[in-house]
Design a protein that fits this description.
Blueprint (H helix, E strand, L loop, with lengths): L2 H13 L7 H13 L6 H9 L2 H11 L14 H8 L1 H16 L6 H29 L3 H10 L2 H10 L11 H18 L4 H12 L9 H11 L5 H5 L15 E2 L2 E2 H7 L1 H10 L3
Antiparallel strand pairs: 1-2
Helix pairs in contact: 1-10, 2-6, 3-5, 4-5, 4-6, 6-8, 6-9, 7-8, 7-9, 7-12, 7-15, 8-12, 9-10, 11-12, 14-15
């Protein structure tokens, strides 16, 4: 199989917008588009979210996570959850649902396991990026959460097409990391209307160079990837780990504390946020 040719066809399909999204993902896309309207009323947003049960459940769960519920007051309705989170975070969660549903429902057990692990990895990276942005790189944590949610979007699309191309996930996958991940990822980020600064950060993430000390959104993603307890299964299949060959101790000093201390202090927050992101 000429995998590069297959990846090129995938990228062309994605660039033309020829993507078959599941029904739940289509609803989530409508929510995203509606929330892009500055005149969208919170009641309208809540009704749109309620139209997708999975999204409704995650919006309420995230609003009750340690990251967003610092006063300990539990929320049980969608409207109040949307108000607590804000439209930016709800848009990110709608995108999370689209990303997760992009893989569809693989029939093969092995592909189901890959999709499940890839999303678990994504949830960990997004949650860690949220904390790292707030505590280490001093960037907007909501942007970092969003970037973490979509950083493996090309991988989910690859899994969705694997059933039509037996052997696509077997053997050498260098062409995926050198061409497929980048070209398909770019096309999907455009379809999802991802803001240019986030696209630029993900492209820098694909390059795989983590600056120390980390300062940028790309550094935030790469550091979150390094620290994630769940690796990307696609990197494992390709015999590659993001950041492989890095030197130096990741336990850097930040201000008057260390990265290890920050992660220990944020363990409950990361765990709560990761759990709430599990679609």
């Amino acid at each position: 199989m000429d995998k590069r040719a297959v990846y090129k066809s995938f990228a062309a399909d994605a660039a033309k917008g020829e993507l078959a999204f599941p029904t739940s993902a289509q609803v989530a896309m409508r929510v995203r588009r509606a929330l892009d309207d500055p005149d969208c009323h919170i009641d309208t947003a809540a009704k749109l979210v309620q139209a997708e049960p999975l999204l409704s459940a995650r919006v309420v769960a995230i609003s009750n996570s340690v990251a967003f519920n610092r006063v300990g007051r539990e929320i049980t309705d969608v409207r109040t959850a949307v108000a607590r989170l804000g439209f930016r975070t709800v848009r990110a969660l709608a995108t999370a649902l689209v990303t997760r549903q992009l893989a569809g429902e693989p029939k093969a057990q092995a592909e189901q396991a890959l999709a499940a692990q890839l999303w678990e990895h994504t949830a960990h990276v997004a949650s860690l990026a949220h904390v790292i942005a707030r505590r280490v790189t001093r960037l907007d944590p909501e942007t970092a959460l969003f970037a973490g949610i979509i950083h493996e979007v090309g991988g989910f699309y690859l899994l969705s097409r694997a059933k039509d191309f037996p052997g696509l996930l077997e053997g050498e996958m260098n062409d995926w990391f050198e061409f497929g991940e980048i070209e398909i990822g770019r096309a999907l980020l455009k379809v999802l209307s991802v803001p240019e600064p986030v696209v630029a950060a993900i492209e820098a993430y694909w390059d795989g160079y983590l600056a120390m000390p980390p300062t940028t959104l790309a550094d935030t993603l790469l550091l979150a990837e390094e620290l994630s307890p769940i690796p990307s299964p696609l990197h494992r299949l390709g015999g590659k780990m993001r950041g492989e060959g890095m030197t130096g101790n990741l336990d850097m000093v930040i201000g008057e504390t260390s990265l290890t201390s920050i992660l220990e202090e944020s363990e409950e927050e990361v765990g709560s946020l990761t759990g709430a992101l599990q679609f």
